[in-house]
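Deviation from plan, reported transparently: XIL complex.
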Amino acid sequence: MVQSIDPAAAAETTLRAAAANAGLFFGVAASPNRLYPVVGQEFNQLTPENDMKPDRIATSSGGLQNTSGADTLVNHAQSNNMLVRGHTLVWHSQAGALQGASQATLNTFIGNAINRWGSRIAYWDVVNEALEDNNTGRRRNQWPHTMNRDANGDGDFFDAGDTDVIRDSFIRAKQVVQAGGLTTKLCINDYDVEGLTVQGGTQNRKANALYDIVRNYRQYIDCVGFQAHFNDNPNSIITSDLQANIQRFADLGVEVHLSEVDIDDDLSNNDIGAGQAENYRKVVRACLNVAKCTGITVWGISDSESWRSSERGLLFTGGNGSYQKKAAYHAVLDELNKGRNSTPPTTPPVTPSVPPTTPPVDPTTPPPTTPPVTSAPPTTPPNPTTGCSATVSLNSWTGGFVATVRVTAGTSPITGWSVQLTLPSGATVTNTWNANRSGSSGTVQFSNVNYNGSVNAGQYTEFGFQGSGTATGLTPVCTAS
Ligand code: XIL
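Because the crystal trials were delayed, the predicted structure below was used instead.
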């Protein structure tokens, strides 16, 4: 008897292939001396573990130096068809010659670093670890946050008169990206922000503070990295509301990444499961169940070569290019092969756990204190008279892509819009956000949802979609009403 084989049911045998099928990347932190074959075989995204940090590449005036390690990594990523996450521009730690620098110098460095690699960097961590430890929900009180000023004393740095190194660094980064017509997306990254709660069910104030930052500065922030260094610290455990927290950030319209994952193999008192492999499964599943969770990166290849080797938190044992897969590896591969939404969420998505401290910045309104980011994309000016125009920026990996579409109003305000796109054959849309959609392949039509139809003259709004296959040469056609 001849058995028929359903090719769609065949499980992938590498992390990157399984992830690509599910519409996300699976990446690794890497260094130039550890670019073994496994890097390109198993992973389709690369984060320089140390080679793009300011202490490596920044001069005291914000110039660049010693970029050869970073270049090696970017080249390796490119020749292995991997996305790159630049890590990191503004950080209190490993700041090197930038330690104590002014915002002007940070801005110089931001410009130099972004322009050095341009769109070869898919994601840049613009600000890393801005928030204090111990679940206080406050900013750090060491440089660069000593530059922050709460002008009206209301307890936050979001007001027009305030000084905020986070806001100003993102504004600068966005200006550089727009001026260069780059596709690079700009991320904020932190740890102990993964769950809605921490040990004992206490609300995660650090996560809430990050949420407020993203909500207030949404117009400059494209993506959020949850580092996901899980261990026994009461604020670093895996909680059952991880997925719900990912979801609430995703609902702001940003991509979410688990950006530096390692999981202590002896989580003892606080974890939500016994074994490391099971814990990896839960974490990967939480991401898979949220459409805008578009990537997972593990913080190294093998336990022995990890920054926290004693926790044995990674997917391989061994070293120096000779690696053995752990149970955790097989669990991750299996979970990725199940794809998105294979199991219902364990907790329903929640609304923000704290009320906003300030109203969200209207994405169509220019920022208060600094020159507004130009509203028109650099490559395609909006229709000069009426109507709307649309541009697409694409992040692609083998087998999948995320497209962000910007709809810009012409010289008159619009109250509704629709965008038509024709996908190449083989490309299929799997998820859409901030738009209604009809069709999923060939010619696909998107239209505004109730909260983003009205766009002021010359301003823009954005929506996005994710798909499988390859999407190149997309030419959006915008129609306004
Ligand atoms: C770590 C590296 O893994 C180590 O090699 C280095 O000595 C210190 O930094 N959060 C981050 C990463 O954003 O840059 C850190 O990487 C781990 C914690």
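Confidence is low (pLDDT under 50) at residues 1-8, 344-384. We consider this an acceptable substitute for the interim report.
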